[in-house]
Amino acid sequence: MNTAEVKAFLTNLQKRIVAGLEQLDGKPFLHDAWERPEGGGGLSCVIEEGNIFERGGVNFSYVHGSGLPASATAARPELAGRSFEATGVSLVLHPRNPYAPTIHMNVRFFEAKKEGSESVWWFGGGMDLTPYYGFEEDAIHFHQTCKSALQPFGDEYYPRFKKWCDEYFYLKHRKEPRGIGGIFFDDFNQPDFTTCFNLMQSVGDHFLSAYVPLLEKRLNTPYSERERDFQAYRRGRYVEFNLVWDRGTLFGLQTGGRTESILMSLPPIVKWRYNWTPPPGSAEAALYTDFLIGKDWV
């Protein structure tokens, strides 16, 4: 096991993804390095008011400390009190055009240590898509790319991680999915370090091919204030999930992470309405009836 090797892959992954997105948008990302007083730091690469992206960030972090926070030990209380190292790349992109979907991707590695005991390590991550207006071919492409990322490691991983994603990115208080899912995994340490690391790398390496073709297809679609209004309404669900349910947000805040970097995932323009539903038969209603349903796309 080599934490330095994982960090090297993640920093390179961040560079590659940012370079690909800058080439597409035409506006450079802001590169903002930061340090964590308790140990570690990171690099936040952020774009605001780009040609395509209204807001987005591709963040690398490496943090360490003397004790794991409650969010990391809730499911594994036996790890409470261990020192830890955590490193990962996390990104969220909010395009301006309502026909282009929001996306989230995260790949990460944890190691928990205790003197006199064997080190405990695990990988986690995944990517999921949140459209505002659904297109079947986009959903199929995204899920097929997710499946392709996992296929070399066994047929069982895609259905398992797809189901995990559907269950995790679910707003329990709204009784609805955040988007059309993708793949998600956590506490992943079987069968061995090399296999787990290779699988995590494959997920990260497939991000651009999963998302960029969708952007290129939708970024010039004409839209009006109606579509922007619905986009802002649905972005409210994204905010609700990240602030109420997301374990990554909670982990970052509990470990004293950099708040600006943690909350860069939130969209810049959001609206809430009281007890509103879209008109039956509308394109907005179709998002609920045809896409936010936990469907098997491939």
- Binned, the helix content reads 40-55%
Largest sheet: 7 strands, antiparallel
Q: Uncertain runs with pLDDT below 50, 5 residues or more?
A: none
Number of domains: 1
The top-level CATH class is Alpha Beta
N/C terminus separation: 34 Å
Strand content: 25-35%
Which geometry do the CA atoms define? globular
The CATH superfamily label reads: Coproporphyrinogen III oxidase, aerobic
Q: In what order do the strands lie side by side in the largest sheet?
A: 1-2-3-4-5-6-9
Please provide the count of β strands. Answer: 9
Radius of gyration: 19 Å
User: Which structural category do the helix and sheet elements fall into?
Assistant: alpha+beta
Fold-level CATH name: oxygen-dependent coproporphyrinogen oxidase
What is the averaged pLDDT score?
93
| CATH architecture term | 3-Layer(aba) Sandwich
Q: How many helices?
A: 10
User: What string gives the helices and strands in order?
Assistant: HEEEHEEEHHEEEHHHHHH
